[in-house]
Amino acid sequence: LGLPLPYVDYISGHFGKPVLLAGPIVPEPSEGELEQRWSDWLSSFPENAVVFASFGSETFLPASAATELLLGLEATNRPFLAVLDFPQGADAEAELNARVPPGFEERVRGRGFVHKGWVQQQQILRHPSVGCYVNHSGFSSVVEGLVAGCQLVLPPMKTDQYINAALFARELRIGVEVARRSEDGWKLKGLVSGPS
């Protein structure tokens, strides 16, 4: 994956320094088996059926964007695992409750799971039932998804993630970029579930 020259030229010109490209560095597979509860749950679905949505440990979806993502995942009628993380010191249970729509858990029971906190991301991505990966467009996350053979949905959140999403979606055509709708967030529901 070479960074196209216009990006290199822009970055070099912006900082007034030469840019030397190195990478990508493909992560070594994580050691250890996938936790039994995730393995059992994922194994109950066909190959490439599950949508995995995770935004890393340093990117936190605002409540409105998380709710829209969850409603979009629900509308797909596909099995999904959505992982939401919250800043250190936050009341994770209260934060989660602010993002999960009323009645959501009952409507998706058996096919949708919302988890708060850390998961074995690489092992989950490599599970045969996982076919789509919605992530924050962080370079490492995108590479992990590619190595696992997942379809990529890329809603960038901050800094280099906008460049990454544009590069992977527009230039390399290996993912779908989610454009910001406005300052209130992304059009995640319509993208994940189709036109609304």
Automatic annotation (TrEMBL):
<dbReference type="GO" id="GO:0035251">
    <property type="term" value="F:UDP-glucosyltransferase activity"/>
</dbReference>
<dbReference type="InterPro" id="IPR002213">
    <property type="entry name" value="UDP_glucos_trans"/>
</dbReference>
<protein>
    <submittedName>
        <fullName>UDP-glycosyltransferase 79A6</fullName>
    </submittedName>
</protein>
<dbReference type="Pfam" id="PF00201">
    <property type="entry name" value="UDPGT"/>
</dbReference>
<keyword id="KW-0808">Transferase</keyword>
<dbReference type="InterPro" id="IPR050481">
    <property type="entry name" value="UDP-glycosyltransf_plant"/>
</dbReference>
